[in-house]
Amino acid sequence: MPGTSEPAGGRVLVVDDEAGIIDVVTTALRFEGYEVGQATSAAACLGMARASSWDLVILDVMLPDMPGVEVCSQLRSSGIDVPVLFLTALDATEDRIAGLAAGGDDYVAKPFSVEELVLRVKALLRRGRNGTTPAASRLSYADLILDTETYEVWRASVPVELTAKEFRLLEYLLTNARRVMSKDQILDAVWGFGFDGDRNIVETYVSYVRRKIDTLGPPLIHTVRGIGYTLRSNAASEET
Question: Is the pTM of this model over 0.70?
Fold first, then answer.
């Protein structure tokens, strides 16, 4: 998981009825310097949110006593304007729309990448709910720009259309620009811990992204034989 040289600060309330998920998320956020509270039910979440001030709520949609979307609605109707990041197994477009319509700010589907979750937490805490800082949401290298809030990508000022998984792959490579990332690291970050499918899916998606990105300028995505992949200019590498 990504590390920081100084504590990130901020108070995050993690709400999920699965103890394993709460433990993983809490450990990752505390490692990054956040103060973390835990709740395993909608009732506990609402009580803690009303009793104390939080900078962000990570909220499971499928809680045992009340849907997370309804919890978010109640928070908003109570005047609690804390950013809400939905965490759920539901990944359909209509579920995302329902969560955002209820007042949610972002949406991560299970199985999730801990690194992606931490990046989204940082992005939400940077912008808050009352404004945004566009420059802080953008990752760039050479003439490649990726916006983590608008989900837009440009190469040499030309817009590039990516699928959700392609976007996450490029975001991970950009976040780790010039570093060589192994196939296992990419699988964990983009497809999530516990992925038990074909590991060659990484090669497939790298080729998809290359076709969209590297046709617009000098190659940026390179293969380092026997190690993994890297995003950098003029890499001494062997392409696949």
Answer: no
